[in-house]
Amino acid sequence: MKVILLQDVKSLGKRGELVEASDGYARNYLLPRKLAKEANAQAMNEYKNAENSKNFKIATQKAQAEANKAQLEGKVFKMTARAGQGGKLFGSITAKQVAEEIKKQYNIVVDKRKVVLECDIKEYGTYKAEVKLFTGISANIDIQVSEA
Fold first, then answer.
1. Angle between helices 95-106 and 41-72 (to 10 degrees)
2. Digitized pLDDT (tens) for each residue of the chain, 148 residues in all
3. In terms of C-beta density within 10 A (0-12 exposed, 13-18 middle, 19 or more buried), how is residue 76 classed?
4. Total structural domains within the chain
5. Which of 28, 85, 118, 130 is deepest in the core (most CB within 10 A)?
6. Domain enclosing residue 100, as ranges
């Protein structure tokens, strides 16, 4: 019997998947506990619409990520910081500050956890960073730290 899962079921599948379950398991366990619904014509139509909607959303996010990559790739972000003798910064430049700078200059919202710094930025100089925009899409940027 084909069923559409309404919740994650261990050893069967995740929520929203169309799976084949034995008749007894589906009728006696999945359906009474509202873990799944029978894959009739109406349910299959809803399932296909949901899949199409999900695919469209992923495609638009991917296209937006490609556009953002083209805008960010190879750019140099100039940041200023105060430092003591020898060019050592008071503190460091963090991924959060880099994400805020990207938002300020290009109006692209990037989560700070998606900014991967090559190393800790604790001195003046130029550093490389990677901004992960989508699965498999990332932009390489340079961060130039100078005196405030």
1. 90
2. 999 999 999 999 999 999 999 999 999 999 999 999 999 999 999 999 999 999 999 999 999 999 999 999 989 999 999 988 887 899 899 999 999 999 999 999 999 999 999 999 999 999 999 999 999 999 999 999 998 7
3. exposed
4. 2
5. 130
6. 67-147
